[in-house]
Amino acid sequence: MNQRKALLRVLKGERTDPPPVWIMRQAGRYLPEYRELRQQAGDFLTLCYTPEMAAEVTLQPIRRFGFDAAIIFADILLVPHALGSDLTFETGTGPLLSPIADPRDVDALRTADSVHEKLAPVGEALRIVRSALPPETTLIGFAGAPWTVATYMIAGRAVPGQIPAHEFLRRQPEAFRRLINLLTEATIEYLSDQIAAGAETIKIFDSWAGSLTGPEFQLYVTDPTQTIVRAIRKRHPGVPIIAFPRAAGDALPAFVADARPDCVALDQSVNPTWIADNLDQQICVQGNLDPALLESGGDELIAAVESVLNGFAGRPHIFNLGHGINPAAQIGNVEKLLETVRSWRPGQASAASRLPGK
Predict the structure, then answer these.
(1) CA 258, CA 274: separation in Å to the nearest integer?
(2) Under a CB-based contact definition with an 8 Å cutoff, are residues 203 and 140 in contact?
(3) Could you give the percent of the chain with pLDDT greater than 90?
(4) Residues 6+ apart with CB under 8 A from 200
(5) How open is the CA angle 342-206-165, to the nearest 5 degrees?
(6) Is the N or C terminus of the chain more exposed, i.e. has fewer CB atoms within 10 Å?
(7) 3-state DSSP call for residue 311?
């Protein structure tokens, strides 16, 4: 491990002041250089599947802001695409897939090892990025968690409440379990390929974890993540894993205890005091600023950044957002976020209190 990489040190349990910082969806629509390249590509999948373009998008926020980590530019729905789902991205609509309506649609999907060939461009993009990154910058690979990816596959699009997935789970439990198992296997293969191509840590995004509760949360959020974590650790010992069970709520401590990621990412609803009371102080956490504050900015942004920093002081912490950055985020506010994080030290006077008029 490169000891200059603060993010990797924190993932191994070290506390640093200030903490390392990157932000979810840091390469994207809020950046003019991204919008220009997206227009050149013509469509979103071309951008994802052209290694030179995907690498350039990944590197753009590193050049502009100098984050402590770069996360490879891709999409969680590339896995179902590799498995045989039709996939398009339409402006104003988002991703569209061929929906899964009955067990035959699950049976028609390709095997998990199909990700190796179809998603090879992601590996090539990782290799390009790894060779171009500053020596202190960590390279992150990622995938969607099986439950979240399944919700998109079943509905064919993003649907509030993931109702089609819940209905399919109840109508066709065996087919649903086969789908989750296939996605779990494919995710292991995909993440393993990313690590082989240069990813130094990986993140598992379960954006819709909070729509499940009780035994279903255990079966379709915790258990698949646990399987992925164990498989990656066996194949790639020492590569740290970040898990993001968004909106897990009271299920979060049991999730961490069972799935055993090296770090758990927190959405903006999670109170640091609750984390201190419910998670061991040695467990690494990532998060959890409200992304909306990067639109509004001002004193409220500075105060909120400091609140996150002070709330997680004393434990391994990676500063991040509670979810992805919004397209309307202002570049100046991202710069102010970074300035506030990097100038912060435990116990110092509040930066907000030193602003004119305070």
Answers:
(1) 19
(2) yes
(3) 93
(4) 5, 8, 138, 139, 140, 239
(5) 155
(6) C
(7) helix
